[in-house]
Design a protein that fits this description.
Blueprint: H1 7-15, E1 20-24, E2 32-35, H2 37-43, H3 47-50, H4 66-77, E3 83-91, E4 97-109, E5 116-123, H5 130-154, E6 156-157, H6 161-166, H7 168-178
Length: 179
Amino acid sequence: MTTSPPEALLAYMRTAPIPLTLGTLDQPDEPLVEVNEAFCRLTGYSRDEVIGRNCRFLQPQSEDVRDAKARMRAFLNDPTVEAGRFEVPNLRADGTPFLNLVFMSRLKTASGSGDLIFASQFDLKPSRGVDDLKAYDAQLGRSIDDMADLGRNHGLMIRQSAMLLSQSAVTIANLRLHG
């Protein structure tokens, strides 16, 4: 049986300005059960094209993704790890490559049940400037607050997500500095 996300979480995702996805671990191949419009703009795919598929379809067929795939698979297979951050080479619908900074977090009910994976994405293209980083950081800050409210109001446990999301600006800044 598929875990049903709370309507409040789905409503939040629909209005969030940053790319977000929701996948499920209780179906084979961990398919996406929800994506928002920002994700569709980032990838060039429509919602109908991605629901029911694993995000792996975004990855090119190359050795460049091997390490990222292994780290994501280890995260998904280990229920004791609640959150992870991954740099993943991806392709948009038109074939344009981009480096995707993906933050994944497990969402569980207060009783510990549920197998949803909540993820945010960020395009690490080198042309992004300080203003883009500041805007993304501000959006993440609002997302952290919104997720904390959802957790309190709907019994979702999102322990390490806020910490990982809040570290995003530093990660992005370091990649810009050294990349």
